[in-house]
Design goal:
Elements lengths: L6 E5 L3 H12 L3 E6 L7 H10 L2 E4 L4 H5 L3 E4 L8 H8 L3 E2 L2 H5 L6 E6 L4 H14 L4 E5 L17 E5 L2 H4 L9 E4 L7 H4 L2 H13 L6 E5 L3 H8 L4 E6 L8 E4 L2 E4 L2 E2 L10 H17 L3 H10 L8 E6 L2 E5 L6 H8 L6 E5 L11 H8 L3 E4 L3 H8 L5 E5 L1 H11 L5 E4 L12 H13 L2
Parallel strand pairs: 1-2, 1-4, 2-3, 4-5, 6-8, 6-9, 7-8, 9-10, 10-11, 11-12, 16-20, 17-18, 17-20, 18-19
Antiparallel strand pairs: 12-13, 13-14, 15-16
Helix pairs in contact: 6-11, 6-12, 13-14, 16-17
């Protein structure tokens, strides 16, 4: 989608919105940028973006501002069904997300990674393996750099490895990835998408525009992923943690095999069955690019966990502390809990996303003495778990860490795996994870 000379409204001035303003101004678009934050909170940002040529406004805005544009670019955090966007569409205004804009400008090939859980680790792992193998690679999207900020430095021989969220994918029409990776699809963000079907359709956008020249890498163990593969026009490569595959990538006794050939000699440096699945997907992607198996193995063994994703914090008095603040949905929390043997004290809770917490029961019953509940969702979690699990409503992360420290025994694990968003008590899951690490450091 070309933007030169067009009247364009950027909605939301977080990291992606700021990148959009910078890119659009560099392409001589007539840019207006808005954010619902009150005026005066970001004077420095206003000045910076104004110098680029954008008109910047804060607070509430009249409908005329939306309908007087040629194009609206909402940031990923802005609901796609926002009434102002719907009215603008009726009036003939185009609405497109950052990925759609980037499609016409991003040089090189695109490898997109999506899924409910594991996107960041898999994206980072693929980027790491490609770098180890000497490939020219840039990593961004929903991880690190916004895609529109990657355009200036992109070259024709580069692989752009992008983490793609449902929020980003739902705002696309023609975006296409040369290689698409779908890790898993389970209910998440239902507070945003409304239904699981709407969420599934958003994720399917990574498949929709692929051609027979493209590659789709999907999880053979996931029913929704198999459905994506059935309707794909691209060449499908499978990965599986539970099945032995002669073609594709699979696991046997914790080791990784690609097209029947063993890739790894040792266990991976990242723990958990879910991280094994992430590694399988990364191997499949890198192999389809043409990376040799010894180079892939070298990249796997030298990779280190991404912060806030099943991150080891410290061992104190024989008790290990792990930070999995990015486990922001139930499925992620279950997989996190199942990564450990022995007794696990799990800190759960935060901002509810219209989640069903019943799947936590089995994992908690097998691993945990007490669930430590915090945040706005504590009562809902307690009610859904019923009497099957002993829980303590401790309100805050600080109280939960102190309680675990006083009651856990040597050999136990204390795990932050909230199964919820962070926005009731923290600005982000990163802030929540950092707070946890700081609290543990002070024990």
């Amino acid at each position: 989608m070309k933007v030169e000379g067009k009247r364009i409204l950027v909605v939301g001035l977080g990291r992606s919105g700021q990148a959009a303003v910078r890119f659009l101004c560099s392409r001589n678009a007539i840019v207006t940028a808005i954010d619902k934050k009150p005026s005066g909170q970001s004077d420095e940002l206003s000045e910076t973006l104004s110098k680029l040529g954008a008109d910047v406004y804060w607070g509430n805005h009249p409908m005329q501002l939306f309908t007087a544009q040629d194009l609206i670019v909402p940031s990923p955090g802005v609901p796609w069904n926002l009434p102002e966007l719907q009215e603008a569409r009726i009036k003939g205004v185009s609405v497109a997300g950052e990925l759609e804009i980037a499609s016409d400008y991003l040089s090189g090939r695109v490898l997109g990674v999506t899924g409910t859980n594991g996107k960041t680790t898999t994206t980072a792992l693929i980027g790491h393996i490609l770098k180890v193998a000497g490939q020219k690679v840039a990593v961004g999207g929903n991880i690190g750099r916004p895609v529109l900020s990657m355009i200036e430095s992109a070259t024709a021989e580069m692989w752009n490895v992008l983490e793609l969220s449902s929020f980003q994918l739902e705002a696309t029409t023609s975006f296409r990835s040369d290689i698409g990776v779908v890790l898993n699809i389970t209910p998440d963000h239902l507070d945003r998408h409304g239904t699981f079907e709407s969420y599934r359709k958003a994720k399917y956008r990574i498949v929709a525009n692929q051609t027979s020249e493209d590659v789709l890498i999907v999880n053979r163990d996931d029913e929704i992923c198999r459905g994506f593969a059935d309707s794909a026009h691209s060449r499908v490569t499978w990965f599986s943690r539970t099945l032995c595959l002669n073609e594709g990538v699979c696991s046997r006794n914790g080791l990784i095999f690609c097209d029947g050939v063993r890739v790894t000699e040792d266990q991976l440096p990242i723990r958990g069955k879910h991280n094994l699945e992430n590694a399988l997907a990364a191997v499949a992607a890198c192999r389809r690019i043409g990376i040799k198996l010894p180079q892939i193995a070298k990249g796997l063994q030298s990779f280190r966990p991404v912060e806030h994703r099943l991150e080891f914090v410290r061992k104190c008095n024989g008790i290990e502390y792990y930070n999995d603040s990015k486990a922001t949905n139930v499925d992620a929390a279950v997989k996190s809990i199942e990564s450990f043997d022995g007794r696990v004290w799990v800190i759960l809770g935060g901002k509810d996303k219209d989640s069903d917490y019943l799947p936590l029961r089995a994992a908690l019953n097998s691993k945990t003495q007490v669930g430590l509940l915090i945040g706005a969702s504590a009562q809902k979690i307690k009610e859904q778990l019923g009497n099957s699990v002993e829980v303590r409503d401790l309100e805050t992360l600080e109280k939960a860490v102190i309680y675990a420290h006083k009651n856990a025994q040597p050999g136990d694990t204390v795990l932050l795996a909230p199964a919820c968003a962070s926005f009731d008590q923290f600005a982000s899951y990163e802030e929540r994870g950092t707070c946890f690490k700081n609290l543990v450091a002070m024990l």
